Amino acid sequence: MDDIITHLRRFELFAGLDDDSLRVISASCRRRKFPPRTTLFLQDDPGQTMYIVISGTVSIQTATPEGEIVHIAQRSAGQVFGEFAILDGKPRSADAITGTQASEMIMIDREPFLRVMSESPVIALNIIAILLDRLRVYTAHTTVTQKQDVMGRLSLFLLDLARTLGKKGAGGEYTINLGMTQQEVAQRINASRETVTRALSRLEKMNAIERKGGVVILHDTDKLRRLVTS
C-alpha cells in the first residue's frame, strides 16, 4: 500500500490530498503490469475501472465502420485514462491498447473511487482541471494541425512526443523510444505509410532527426518547428 501511495502523490489527479485521504484511496487501488499490445478495454465495454499510467504508453483509439483505425490520444506516465466511463457510468467511448513496450498501471474501480471523491471534493476539482486542460490542448492542436502538410504534421507529432516522452541529452537532442510502427505513425497524422516513410527520410537528410531502430533522435527541433505552419 505504501508503494501505491508513493505513486499517487506524483499524479496531478491526487494533488492536494493529505496522507489519510491517500491511504483511503490506495486501499481501493490495484497495481498491474501488462505486456505490449494488450487490449485493456474496447469501445462499448462497461466502464468500471480508471487507469493511471506508471510506465509505458497507451493508445486511445477507435475504428470507422470500414475498419480504419482513428487515433484519439496517447497516455503516458503520470496520466490518467478511462475516467469518462467511471464518472458517468456509460460504456467506453474508445479502445485502449498498450504500446510496444510493457506497461504498468494503477487501477481504481468506479464504486470506491466515487465514494472517495464524494469525501474529498479536491479530486473532483482536479478532474475538472485535467479535462479542461485536455480540451484546450485538443482545440489548439486541431487548429494548428488543420493548416499543416504532411511534413508539418509529422514535425508537430515528433515535437509533441519530445515534450511528453523524450529524454533530453546534454547536447540538447531529444531521444524518443517511438514504440510504434510507421503505419501507426501514419494513422496518427492522417497520412499514408509511404508518405510518412518519405517524410522521415527527408527529415534525416536535413539532419533534423536520426533513426536507430525503434528510437528517433531529434537533433534539431528548430528545423522541425520551422516546418510547422503558424
Describe it.
This protein has 230 residues and is an alpha+beta fold. It has helices spanning 2-8, 19-26, 83-88, 110-119, 121-145, 150-164, 182-189, 193-205, 221-226; strands spanning 29-34, 39-41, 49-55, 58-63, 69-75, 80-81, 95-98, 103-109, 167-168, 174-177, 209-212, 215-218. The chain is globular, with a radius of gyration of 19 Å. The mean pLDDT is 86.
Strand order of the largest sheet: 1-8-3-6
What is the percentage of strand-forming residues?
Answer: 15-25%
Alpha-carbon distance between the two ends = 48 Å
Radius of gyration from CA coordinates: 19 Å
Instruction: Please provide the count of β strands.
Output: 12
What about the largest sheet? 4 strands, antiparallel
Write the element-wise H/E pattern from the N-terminal end onward: HHEEEEEEHEEHHHEEHHEEH
Residue-averaged pLDDT: 86
* Residue windows where pLDDT falls under 50 for at least 5 positions: none
Helical proportion, percent range:
40-55%
- Enumerate how many helices there are, as a single number: 9
Structural class: alpha+beta
Approximate shape: globular
